[in-house]
């Protein structure tokens, strides 16, 4: 079989990696075909997501770069420099797409300057074509930007301020959680249910939309071979399901 170009994804994590796991499980299925996760990078050494990557079959290369250790080892460097360093590790894998799946850091301009090709990533070498970056956020566009969105939405529902919440995959722009939405999905909050029940429903939604969001972005920037696309289309749209 001709060497078909596999689309390359780098995933950034900080925690359990359940969204990374959703991507791993979708690889080489019609939902995310002809795609490979070429690196999982964590800013926390203990992130279970690193284990998920190592236990994948085939296993996925991992890397770790913590902010505090970096700053301690480079006292003259800043948070901006750290984000440039993160971007360099990522860009060297030549990804078609970068996915922030629970990356618990606000990406500063340092990261985006490198992945957009404004700053060199190796000597003077710059990215030729800006690499798209998507982020998963457990709220609707503009609703609960930043941290603790799940808890804040649940509180707002208890006060009658909102009727439901949601989750989204959005492009990463320089303003936190404000990039253009790629996939948006409402998530119901049921009257009287504990926050755990809402959170579980929300995470299940995230596992779906992170795959949909990655596939949608890849189809935009690195569409698969037409023949394979037709096969996938028909496998997704079999009328006799
Ligand atoms: C997700 O809820 C994501 O929305 C938030 O962090 C969580 C990551 O979960 N940013 P996991 O590490 O993928 O399990």
Automatic annotation (TrEMBL):
Q: Does the keyword Transferase apply?
A: yes
List the InterPro entries hit by this protein, alphabetically: Formyl_transf_N, Formyl_transf_N_sf, GART, GART_AS
Question: Which EC number(s) does UniProt give?
Answer: 2.1.2.2
Q: Which reactions fall under this protein's catalytic activity?
A: N(1)-(5-phospho-beta-D-ribosyl)glycinamide + (6R)-10-formyltetrahydrofolate = N(2)-formyl-N(1)-(5-phospho-beta-D-ribosyl)glycinamide + (6S)-5,6,7,8-tetrahydrofolate + H(+)
- Quote the PROSITE patterns the UniProt record gives: GART
Where does this protein act, in terms of pathway? Answer: Purine metabolism; IMP biosynthesis via de novo pathway; N(2)-formyl-N(1)-(5-phospho-D-ribosyl)glycinamide from N(1)-(5-phospho-D-ribosyl)glycinamide (10-formyl THF route): step 1/1
Coiled-coil spans are none
Tell me which species this is from.
Hermanssonia centrifuga
Enzyme class of the recorded protein, top EC level: transferase
A Pfam family it matches: Formyl_trans_N
Respond yes or no to whether keyword Transferase is given for this record: yes
Q: Which Gene3D superfamilies does UniProt cross-reference here? A: Formyl transferase, N-terminal domain
Q: Supply the name of the protein.
A: Phosphoribosylglycinamide formyltransferase
**Which residue intervals define the domain Formyl transferase N-terminal in the entry?**
8-211
Q: Keywords for this entry?
A: Purine biosynthesis, Transferase
GO terms in the biological process aspect are:
'de novo' IMP biosynthetic process
For molecular function, the Gene Ontology terms on record are: phosphoribosylglycinamide formyltransferase activity
Give the family, as the similarity comment puts it: Belongs to the GART family.
* GO CC annotations on file: cytoplasm
């Amino acid at each position: 079989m001709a060497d078909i170009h596999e689309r390359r994804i780098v995933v950034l994590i900080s925690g359990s990696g359940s969204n990374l796991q959703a991507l791993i499980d979708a690889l080489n299925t019609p939902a995310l075909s002809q795609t490979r996760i070429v690196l999982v990078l964590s800013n926390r050494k203990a992130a279970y997501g690193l284990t998920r990557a190592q236990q994948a079959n085939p296993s996925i290369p991992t890397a770790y770069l913590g902010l505090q250790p970096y700053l301690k080892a480079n006292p003259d460097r800043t948070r901006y420099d750290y984000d440039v360093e993160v971007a360099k590790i990522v860009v060297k894998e030549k990804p078609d797409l970068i996915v922030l799946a629970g990356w618990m850091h606000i990406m500063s301009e340092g990261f985006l300057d490198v992945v957009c090709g404004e700053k060199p990533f190796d000597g003077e070498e710059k990215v030729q074509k800006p690499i798209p970056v998507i982020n998963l956020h457990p709220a609707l566009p503009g609703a609960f930007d930043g941290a603790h969105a799940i808890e804040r939405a649940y509180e707002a529902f208890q006060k009658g301020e909102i009727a439901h919440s949601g989750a989204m995959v959005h492009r990463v722009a320089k303003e936190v959680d404000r990039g253009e939405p790629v996939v948006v999905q409402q998530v119901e909050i049921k009257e009287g249910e504990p926050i755990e029940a809402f959170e579980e429903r929300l995470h299940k939604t995230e596992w779906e939309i992170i795959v949909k969001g990655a596939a949608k972005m890849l189809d935009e920037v690195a569409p698969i071979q037409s023949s394979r696309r037709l096969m996938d289309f028909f496998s997704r749209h079999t009328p006799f399901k």
